[in-house]
């Protein structure tokens, strides 16, 4: 198997096989990353494709520094963030149009997105890479280009924040139920 340096060099020379190998090498990781950010398989597939299109469009200017996957994650992350900004209002409209048996799933999705939105970007990235991408702490450290102790600290901090946020959500829900009675 070719390493990234050789693949990029061959892609810059126009080798179609190198493009195929490169996409095959990273497709699943980027797809999974996109899915865990937007929670929609179709959009995740579109964002994955768009990630590679954007990478290839900038290929002539790209200088290999050993962090190709990190660069792909950055592109994918920006696409997902843009999508989430655009769909905030649409989620509320969707709830009204959905059948009753799907309402609970959408409410859970909205709750998860609301909780994730309340987290700082660096905490959300560590959480996503650790739990959804199932990266090891050292891999997260390499991906985010931060030290391992900082990754451990952020993971510990985000776990505490999640407990607080989810506890707060449950508390708020119980208050609402009490007011209805």
TrEMBL record:
Transmembrane segments: none annotated. One of its GO terms (molecular function) is sigma factor activity. Pfam families: Sigma70_r2, Sigma70_r4_2. Residues 23-88 form the RNA polymerase sigma-70 region domain. GO terms for cellular component: DNA-directed RNA polymerase complex. GO terms for biological process: DNA-templated transcription initiation. CDD domains: Sigma70_r4 (cd06171). InterPro entries: RNA_pol_sigma-70-like, RNA_pol_sigma-70_dom, RNA_pol_sigma70_r2, RNA_pol_sigma70_r4_t2, RNA_pol_sigma_r2, RNA_pol_sigma_r3/r4-like, WH-like_DNA-bd_sf. Residues 110-162 form the RNA polymerase sigma factor 70 region 4 type domain. Keywords: DNA-binding, DNA-directed RNA polymerase, Sigma factor, Transcription, Transcription regulation. The keyword Transcription applies. Signal peptide: none annotated. Belongs to the sigma-70 factor family. ECF subfamily. This is DNA-directed RNA polymerase sigma-70 factor.
């Amino acid at each position: 198997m070719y390493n990234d340096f050789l693949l990029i060099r061959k892609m810059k020379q126009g080798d179609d096989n190198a493009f195929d190998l490169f996409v095959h090498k990273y497709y699943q990781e980027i797809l999974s990353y996109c899915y865990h950010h937007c929670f929609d398989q179709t959009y995740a597939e579109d964002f994955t494709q768009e990630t590679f299109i954007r990478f290839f469009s900038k290929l002539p200017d790209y200088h290999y520094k050993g962090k190709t996957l990190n660069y792909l994650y950055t592109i994918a992350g920006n696409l997902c963030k843009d999508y989430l900004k655009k769909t905030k209002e649409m989620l509320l409209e969707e709830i009204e149009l959905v059948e009753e048996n799907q309402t609970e799933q959408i409410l859970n999705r909205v709750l998860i997105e609301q909780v994730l939105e309340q987290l700082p970007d660096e905490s959300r990235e560590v959480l996503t890479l650790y739990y959804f991408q199932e990266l090891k702490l050292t891999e997260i450290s390499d991906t985010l280009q931060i030290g391992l102790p900082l990754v451990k600290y952020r993971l510990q901090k985000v776990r505490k924040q999640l407990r607080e946020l989810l506890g707060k959500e449950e508390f708020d829900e119980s208050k609402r139920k009490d007011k209805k009675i």
